[in-house]
Amino acid sequence: MEQREVLVVLFDGVQALDVSGPVEVFHGASQGEPGAYRIRTAGLDGTPVRTTSGLTLVPDLTLAEAGVPHTLLVPGGQGTRDPDPRLIDWLRGNAHRARRKVSVCSGALLLAEAGLLDGRRVTTHWMLCETLARRFPALRVDPEPIYVRDGDVATSAGVTAGIDLALALVEEDLGRDVALAVARHLVVFLRRPGNQTQFSVQLAAQTAERRPLRDLQQWITEHPAADLSVDALADRAGLSPRHFARAFRDEVGMPPGRYVDRVRLEAARRRLEDTADGIAQVSRHCGYGTPEAMRRAFLRVLGTSPAEYRRRFQPARPPVPAA
Questions:
Q1: Alpha helices of 39-157 — where are they, by DSSP H?
Q2: What is the pTM of this model?
Q3: What are the boundaries of each domain within the chain?
Q4: Which PROSITE patterns match (predicted)?
Q5: 4-186 CATH, one of 3.40.50.300, 2.30.29.30, 3.40.50.880, 3.30.479.30
Q6: Contact, 59 vs 49, CB < 8 A?
Q7: With pLDDT > 90 as the criterion, what percentage of the chain qualifies?
Q8: Secondary structure in 3-state letters for 176-205
Q9: pLDDT at residue 78 above 80?
Q10: Which residues pair with 103 in a beta bridge?
């Protein structure tokens, strides 16, 4: 079996979970398939680095001593805001030789600064997507997915999305059974699809300035199966349909119909994840009316059916020990 070296770049101000999450995934895979991965960490000088949370990590070696890894993993953290120029120089001169380049969260800023993401479709933490797109216009930044694969480059959103991406890479390398065993051990999902949105509709949308519209946003979230037509919502807000549609779009940042679509999709996702309700019951509870209407919404936005979404997204449960 080919041994794949995973080299994790460390620097002052790194996010500890961006490092430990993927490392635990690759380590777990090596327990199931001995020798599958060799995991090493490297820093500029090989000296201990301090994470954003105050933990100290000690690199295995310096970046200068590192060879060409199979997978180069660049985590994020506050240290990506003003990185050491030597780190960027090393990435620019060496990272392209790795078979896979992977970033977690704001680690994408380091890869972009080194010129490794030009022309690529990428993502990062949703709070940083606008910054990434503005600073590096040659990138195609997609703010919604939890991770994006583009050729030999993979970028992911914040913190836990690094675990999702690592599980996807293990599944690609060693198969679904190994990845599932790792997920069970870590008690995480196997696996959130990469095009799963990284934030809720409440985070994606703006909060309306006027109290009636703010209250209406909350009411929509709590009543996805209600009549959420423009006329019905306008009546609840005490406005004419035309005035309501214009005010909602101006203050929330999207038309009311699109907001309702997102709320219903999110409600359906949560119900598929958290309950054993049947597909027809979920579709009625979330305002779709029919399973077919919900299926079309899932395929359009997530690229998967509700049944497949549930299969992938249900938490992996450890097997019950034999008596």
A1: 85-94, 107-113, 129-135
A2: 0.67
A3: 4-186, 201-313
A4: HTH_ARAC_FAMILY_2
A5: 3.40.50.880
A6: yes
A7: 69
A8: HHHHHHHHHHHCCECCCCCCCECCCHHHHC
A9: yes
A10: 74, 155
DSSP state of 286: T
- State the maximum Cα–Cα separation within the chain, in Å, rounded to a whole number: 69
Q: Which of 29, 105, 190, 245 is catalytic?
A: 105
Is residue 180 very low, low, confident or very high in pLDDT (cuts 50, 70, 90)? confident
* Alpha-carbon torsion (125, 184, 190, 27), positive or negative: positive
- The percent of residues above 70 in pLDDT, for the chain, comes to 89
Residue-wise pLDDT tens digits, 285-315 = 999 989 999 999 999 888 889 998 888 765 4
Q: What gap in Å lies between CA 156 and CA 25, rounded to an integer?
A: 15
The contacts of residue 152 (CB under 8 Å, 6+ apart) are 98, 99, 100, 101
Cα torsion 27, 164, 117, 46 to 10°: value is -30
Whether residue 129 lies in the annotated active site: no
Q: Is 110 helix (H, G, I), strand (E, B) or coil?
A: helix
Tell me which residue of 72, 1, 87, 77 sits closest to 39, measured CA to CA.
72
